[in-house]
Amino acid sequence: MPELPEVETVRSGLEKYVTGKKIQSAEIFHPRAIKPSSISPLTSCIGAQIKSVRRRGKFLWFELDRDFVLAAHLGMSGQLLVQKEKSLPQPHLRAKFGLSGNRKSNQDQIRFIDQRTFGWLSVEQTVNGIPVSVREIAYDPFEKDFNLKQVVANIKRRKSAIKPAILNQNIISGVGNIYADEALWRAKIHPEIICEDLSEAEIRKVISSAISVMKSAIKAGGTSFDEQYKNVNGESGYFSRSLKVYGREGDPCPRCRSAIRRIAFANRSSHFCPRCQR
């Protein structure tokens, strides 16, 4: 699933290409591409000008010169590409928007591609500038209102393991399985340690490690393992080359050379060093 660095890479790429342009057409090709709670069909966006592209955690949305926004979540395999109208069609194209600013015979388009159809688009009202579907999502670490002290205190009082706590999008948004494993390795914290058994300094170190690794991933354009994550130009990110533990079961730990282990975790996996992370 695209995590914060991948979604931020998509957001910044979209913003560069689409800000100030008008949506001239909107088409949907798969019913599951539209969130059931959408207040209006995609065609209601026709004629709207895109003012900016914003993000919180793994959610992004297009601010329009309307009293609603166009929100998006990439799910497991969603992509938002900016391509010319004459570009070859993709087999998993779910929706597309034609944009102003080019000759109509070959205009730019925003194309929503989603192989597994877990992603969605949604026309939504906002509350204090935030789409309805994002209201309950916690601030992510790159927002100015992110309160590190409050997040540390929230995690400290929990009886769950530390990894599910930092994956909880109602505590801190944007962190997924990849960057959770990498952050815990950097902080030398075992993923199954109970939150209330950690000191505030240790929890703060986990969060600062998550911020650090995600900053590095953004610079690298995100993490791509297959064709399911691409930036708006259809290019893969290359942070996978810098991963220390995620997906590296059996490889030597870059710090101590012990073999990286993988354990089952909530229908997915956790990767960690059994010597460094105790």
Main attributes of the structure:
22% helix; 4-stranded antiparallel beta sheet; N-terminal domain of MutM-like DNA repair proteins; alpha+beta; Helicase, Ruva Protein, domain 3; 278 residues; 2 domains; 5 helices
Describe this structure in words.
With 278 residues, this protein is an alpha+beta fold. It has two domains: 131 residues, MutM-like, N-terminal (N-terminal domain of MutM-like DNA repair proteins, Alpha-Beta Barrel), CATH 3.20.190; 125 residues, Orthogonal Bundle (Helicase, Ruva Protein, domain 3). The protein is built from five helices and twelve strands. The strands form four sheets. Strands 1-6-7-5 form a four-stranded antiparallel beta sheet, with helices on one face. A four-stranded antiparallel beta sheet has the order 2-3-4-8, with helices on one face. Helix 2 packs across helix 5 and helix 4 crosses helix 5. The chain starts with a helix and ends in a 6-residue tail after the last strand. 44% of the residues are buried. The mean pLDDT is 93.
Question: How is this fold's topology laid out?
Answer:
Elements: H1 4-18, E1 23-28, E2 50-56, E3 59-64, E4 69-73, E5 78-84, E6 93-99, E7 108-114, E8 120-124, E9 126-127, E10 130-131, H2 148-156, H3 162-167, H4 177-187, H5 200-219, E11 261-265, E12 268-272
Antiparallel strand pairs: 1-6, 2-3, 3-4, 4-8, 5-7, 6-7, 9-10, 11-12
Helix pairs in contact: 1-5, 2-5, 4-5
Q: Quick gist of this model?
A:
By secondary structure, the chain is an alpha+beta fold.
